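Sample intake — Long-chain-fatty-acid--CoA ligase
Collected from: Streptomyces graminofaciens
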Amino acid sequence: MSPLFPALTGDAPADRPALRFGDRALTYAELAAATGALADRIRGGGRVAVWATPALETAVAVVAALRAGVAAVPLNPKSGEKELGHILADSAPTLVLAAPGDELPSPLGDLARVDVDVYATGDPAPAEDAGDEDPALVVYTSGTTGPPKGAVIPRRALATTLDALADAWQWTGDDVLVHGLPLFHVHGLVLGILGPLRRGGSVRHLGRFSTEGVARELAGGATMLFGVPTMYHRIAESLPEDPELAKALGRARLLVSGSAALPVHDHERIAAATGRRVIERYGMTETLMNTSVRADGEPRAGTVGVPLPGVELRLVEEDGTPVASYDGETVGEIQVRGPNLFSEYLNRPDATAAAFTADGWFRTGDMAVRDPDGYVRIVGRKATDLIKSGGYKIGAGEIENALLEHPGVREAAVTGEPDADLGERVVAWIVPSDPQSPPDTEELADHVAARLAPHKRPRTVRFLDALPRNDMGKIMKRALKHD
């Protein structure tokens, strides 16, 4: 196959900036030499673990593994010892790549360690003898039940997803991306590091997200920002008091949000202050990217756009039959098919088989509606966000967006709880804007009913100081327990 990173073999100017983390940076020539040297050290072995801190060493390690034709297993530095032990036993890496000086926890103690030298010099163009279907990454998904499963992502999926995003976002080697995302998952690592390198562009990683860092980099020539809703919410909160941030965001060519739904309220606040619309895309560990609002399309708040080139997408009823018509109202489970899909769950043929239909469609578990013109709007997860109340199928996501438009609501999550009459009742979990004067249940119910429909109004409201979230800012609904 063609190389994953043509820019490392002469397709980009040698002195073009490739990666920058704080005050440490590598040009394409330096990155080619460093990854070439490391690739020579690890070529021919089995899988390699990568201690995936938000640092230059992580990017060099993963790129070197890909250039060596070796599958990389990114490890979340915040994982507990039990989870790390499971991942290491399951993936059986031959060694771990880490930054010099990083202290590794005890589960990694018996594993051979190679320190990553980001300034090493080696063959800048090592042969990539791996095939399209060979594993590139094994990324562990945080399942809601049982230990994490290792999704085996082939090189084919990386290439096709990143090229499809280049088409959708008009992404070129002239783009400079800024982000502060972790590097142990698809968003931060594949889109945020490998994406720019495949295009021959540049990445400026903030190390840790801050609105000050975003403003500085966008004012200093960065053209794209990737973030998760928590980051954009902080941006929206800061904009009224920070005209420099608004000006910097207004200069960006593309603002992209992913990993969870961005509330419509935050969309509107950012657009009003900056003149720029955030676009959303939709993907998963197992599928990489499926859909996106296109750079040349309508940035419709609350949607994740249209299927990317090469991706087939359909909505199905509970019995597996395709939804009859796309009317913007009928809820169905998203199923996808295409070259962007993972190969298997490592060592889990049972789980792999269960994830696919007989004709090759992947069951995402995500519920959505689709407009007649093809735009997709996610309404929640099948397991936690589909509420069956009074004979209706209701997606929690649209109720959450409606609640967030109420001035008395700072954060909102919606779940379903058993109800003798309705089957399930809609429950709203609210972080109020003013804890001393929260809105009452009737006020919130009327607010939702007026915007959506009476059967979607919350019947119960519970107030919290904060919603439980994971590292990606996703609300952990299983931690929201009813009495």
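Post-analysis note: The chain is about 30% helix and 25% strand.
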